[in-house]
Specification:
By secondary structure, the protein is an alpha/beta fold. It is built from four helices and five strands; from the N terminus they run H-E-H-E-E-E-H-E-H. A hairpin with a 5-residue loop joins strand 2 and strand 3. It starts with a helix and ends in a 9-residue tail after the last helix.
């Protein structure tokens, strides 16, 4: 994914609008890993959805927070192949309220195709890598759990009406993933 100056500027605008913060750069200190599924059952189509700098017309329901496109740090394909698609310490727009403290992992699928055991194993390896690299990481959550943080000091979204309902990746996937990380909190 290309991180042009324009995408960096759009990210800064998103931070200002959503978090009321003026920032010089879009660097984050990771504290949370958020697990997602793309809802798209194809790697190329998933990447093509994340790659543009601005939101596509079909995402108008989240446009009120800015036209910065959604993004994530990693994509994990059905066979467990992990793709790093942006710098790990750049802010990605992937979870309301927690973007400035989280790394996002998108798993291909979740539409007609379920997530695979290969993806689970890849997520275990990836979370282990991130946990070892960034000692600041304390939490591991599924996207569907982000609202649990609304009163937490890491939750920064200023618009109380800007919330979406999420079910990804699935409770079962997260339960299986968490078995490998008893020291990472879910809230």
């Amino acid at each position: 994914m290309m991180f042009s100056e324009n995408r960096v500027e759009l990210t800064k605008q998103y931070i200002k609008k959503s978090y009321d913060l003026e920032v010089e750069n879009i660097e984050i200190i990771p504290k949370i890993i958020v697990i997602h599924h793309t809802g798209i059952d194809d790697l190329k189509d998933s990447f093509d959805k994340l790659n543009p700098e601005t939101l596509s017309i079909d995402r108008s329901y989240i446009l009120k927070a800015g036209n910065l496109n959604v993004s994530a740090h990693f994509l994990v394909d059905f066979d467990g192949t992990i793709y790093s698609i942006m710098p790990e310490t750049f802010m990605a727009r992937h979870v309301i309220g927690l973007n400035l403290s989280s790394i996002g992992i998108e798993n291909i699928g979740g539409n007609k195709k379920s997530l695979t055991n290969e993806q689970l194993q890849a997520n275990i390896k990836l979370v282990e890598y991130l946990k070892n690299k960034y000692k600041t990481i304390e939490y591991l959550i599924g996207h569907y759990e982000y609202k649990n943080f609304e009163t937490h000091h890491l939750f920064l979204e200023k618009d109380s009406s800007y919330r979406t309902v999420k079910q990804d990746p699935s409770e079962e996937f997260m339960e299986n993933l968490r078995k490998s990380f008893p020291n990472l909190k879910s809230f």
